[in-house]
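ok so dumb question maybe but i'm new to this and my supervisor (M.) told me to 'just get the structure for Cytochrome c oxidase subunit 2' and walked off. so i did the thing. is this what she meant?? sequence i used:
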Amino acid sequence: MPNRSPAKALLRPTATLLLGSVVLAACGQKTPQTTLNPASESTRAIYNLSELLFWLGVVVFLIVQTWLIVSIIKYRQKDSSQIPTQIHGNTKVEIAWTIVPAIIAIVIFVFTFDTIRKIEFMPDEAAGNTLNVKVIGHQWWWEFQYPDIKDASGKPLVTANELWIPSGSYIDVKMTSVDVIHDFWIPGLAGKRDVMPNRESGLWFKADDVADGSPAVFWGQCAEYCGGQHAYMKMRVVVASPADFQKWSSEQSQVAVNTTLPESFTKNCIGCHVVRGTNAAGITGPDLTHFGGRMTIAAGTTDNTREHLYAWLDDPDAVKRGNIMTTAIKADTLTEAEITELVDYLESLNPGTSVKGQQ
Ligand code: CUA
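this is what came out, is it supposed to look like this??
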């Protein structure tokens, strides 16, 4: 080893750290799934805990690194022909490095326990101000049911991949899966929770208030590896003011705004999809009743535009590999005219209240 000065020895790690910080900061430009912008009581509690842990870590890091640098400079063996003095054991130091971390661990435990208590149990004030939502995980999309909001036939309102909720209400989420284990996660609004077949899990959250006419959109994501398209099992959560939510939910509990199914839909789609008010009553695919007003297609994979929908129907596998659509509609099965007819029909299914185009 060349005999480098301590300052030179520190140059490379310091430069790496600085450069790394710059690169990481650049990554923060568009991060819709960040946990650093909490917008609910639960995520604020989690954020406050992580901030405490971060600053505790910074303090420990600074003390240890300062100590290390001082030791390297001050106690360096100046005469390299000599072996440094060998020492073994130091009772005072050993007691200190046992007690100090134990105190830190106890502090972390107390604050973590308090945070878990806060986010786990719905407060008493939630009574009378709760909206129940049922989440059903599918490979690879999300089904949302509103047991409290019924359509004309008495069935609960159903949507796919886009969950609207009223701000200021306690959202009581119960979840299950029809196939494998998924994980429900909206980083801005709630912590993660596993979504399991044959079992019901749950969590709650209360989104911060938003103004009338200014719904806030949050990105969500399956957070448990569930097969090839796990990364494309996304969702959007729209937090609307109570009045806007009321408008949206009353529209959504109606039948489709266009109940004249085109022939291509009857031929290819009704086996899997529901369009309320028509004879399309399949059960394996997302409910398409109000598809035209949704922000995205293919579970958040891409924006809901005519071009994207055309591409999706033309070759589903090219947009999202391995989905059931791929086997149901093989590439090139539909003619251009049929695809255009389907795009026209699906995009017409927009009841009005929508955040389409907002990201
Ligand atoms: Cu569902 Cu990962």
